[in-house]
């Protein structure tokens, strides 16, 4: 399809939307041509979209086969450094939660994908369960797969910026309120450290506090033998920290000065609570922000093979990336275009 190869070549970041069945359309893409894919396919047996599409199969096994056929095309068109983010919900049948997200994920792993995270999208809603005999469900899986073990990931683009250390009553206080006074007392009062170890620990602590006040590091924790609880294995054979603790009597943990990495639970309110009723089952824009920043290089291309109202493409455009959306529905593709034009 010349339109795809032309789009991939040009500099324009305005998204390309293609009407049709993803399986057919993806076949016309060159191999290894996109950097990142983010998508949310229709869930099995949940709702009917315009023009049919996947999700309407009689058996969930057929749905999984059809979805995996599209995913294997995604794998072909993804660069070796590429990432694939799959948001997928589960379904019940005969009082059984089917485990569809994990059935899909396990098949993908068998096909060679590396699963890096099962991000839990915590949706807040769902407290009032429609069912009287089970709990309300408030999360969905958002799987983070990569094509190979050498993949693009810009961790610094998504770190949450640390707060600054400050000086309080003449003492340096780290971003999370650690001043060193408590550690100093713990060293002095320790019955486990010998005098030499106490002196070394005190000197090392003073040096760390100096680095905090110079702004070289923003935060730290000190672990002193038999005072702090350790989270590593106590066996010196397996843990370098356990060895340090045994030999020196203390060690430090330093926070990354560029900030901490977000966890794998993302607290994001669903889009339908955000009053965009004209759009059908869109996921919230926020869900695409970390994936694009971390796994699509600034000059890269994002793909969404079930693009619906174009949320992925909109966020890609806002973040300066090119993107291609595919949907069976012309109506959704038009909505997606209008949504981005309105900007
Ligand atoms: C859950 S919605 C995607 C919502 C989207 N994330 C958004 O922000 O609006 C799933 C979409 O997949 C489309 N679809 C279903 N089967 C398809 C197929 N085989 N090829 C292309 N699109 C398909 C539907 O038309 C629907 O718009």
Share of β-strand residues:
15-25%
- Could you tell me the radius of gyration in angstroms? 25 Å
Shape: elongated
What composes the largest sheet? 8 strands, mixed
Structural class call reads alpha/beta
Strand order of the largest sheet: 1-14-13-2-3-7-6-12
Output the helix-strand order: HEHEHEEEHEEEEHHEHEEHEHEH
Q: What's the CATH class label of the largest domain?
A: Alpha Beta
How many domain modules?
2
Number of helices: 10
Q: How many individual β-strands?
A: 14
What's the end-to-end separation, in Å? 29 Å
CATH names the topology of the largest domain as Rossmann fold
CATH architectural arrangement of the largest domain: 3-Layer(aba) Sandwich
CATH homology group of the largest domain: Vaccinia Virus protein VP39
Task: List the bound ligands.
Answer: S-adenosylmethionine
Describe this structure as you would to a colleague.
The chain is an alpha/beta fold and 343 residues long. The chain folds into 2 domains: 238 residues, Rossmann fold (3-Layer(aba) Sandwich), CATH 3.40.50; 89 residues, no CATH class. It is built from 10 helices and 14 strands. An 8-stranded mixed beta sheet has the order 1-14-13-2-3-7-6-12, with helices on both faces. A two-stranded antiparallel sheet has the order 4-5. Strands 8-9 form a two-stranded antiparallel sheet. The longest helix has 19 residues. The two termini are 29 Å apart. The model has no long low-confidence stretch (mean pLDDT 89). Bound molecules: S-adenosylmethionine (SAM). The site of S-adenosylmethionine has 21 residues, from strand 14.
């Amino acid at each position: 399809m010349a339109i795809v190869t032309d789009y991939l070549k040009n500099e324009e970041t305005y998204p390309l939307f293609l009407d049709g069945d993803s399986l057919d359309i993806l076949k016309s893409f060159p191999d290894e041509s996109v950097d990142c894919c983010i998508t949310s396919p229709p869930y099995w047996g949940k709702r009917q979209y315009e023009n049919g599409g996947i999700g309407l199969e009689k058996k969930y096994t057929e749905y999984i086969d059809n979805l995996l056929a599209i995913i294997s095309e995604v794998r072909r068109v993804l660069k070796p450094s590429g990432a694939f983010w799959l948001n997928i919900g589960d379904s019940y049948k005969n009082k059984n939660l089917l485990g569809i997200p994990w059935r899909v994920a396990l098949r993908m792993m068998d096909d060679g994908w590396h699963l890096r995270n099962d991000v839990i999208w915590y949706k807040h809603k769902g407290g009032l369960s429609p069912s009287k005999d089970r709990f309300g469900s408030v999360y969905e899986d958002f799987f983070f797969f990569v094509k190979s073990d050498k993949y693009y990931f810009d961790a610094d683009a998504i770190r949450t910026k640390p707060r600054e250390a400050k000086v309080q009553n003449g003492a340096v206080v780290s971003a999370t309120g650690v001043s060193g006074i408590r550690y100093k007392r713990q060293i002095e009062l320790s019955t486990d450290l010998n005098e030499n170890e106490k002196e070394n620990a005190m000197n090392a602590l003073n040096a760390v506090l100096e680095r905090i006040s110079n702004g070289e590091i923003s935060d730290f924790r000190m672990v002193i033998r038999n005072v702090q609880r350790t989270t590593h294995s106590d066996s010196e054979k397996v843990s370098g920290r356990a060895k340090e603790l045994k030999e020196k009597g203390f060690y430090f943990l330093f926070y990354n000065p560029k900030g901490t990495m977000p966890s794998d639970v993302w607290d994001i309110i669903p889009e339908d609570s955000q009053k965009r009723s004209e759009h059908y089952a869109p996921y919230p824009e926020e869900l695409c922000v970390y994936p694009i920043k971390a796994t699509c290089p600034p000059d890269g291309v994002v793909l969404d093979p079930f693009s619906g109202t174009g949320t992925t493409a909109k966020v890609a455009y806002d973040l300066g990336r090119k993107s291609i959306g595919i949907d069976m529905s012309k109506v959704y593709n038009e909505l997606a275009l209008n949504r981005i034009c309105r900007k």
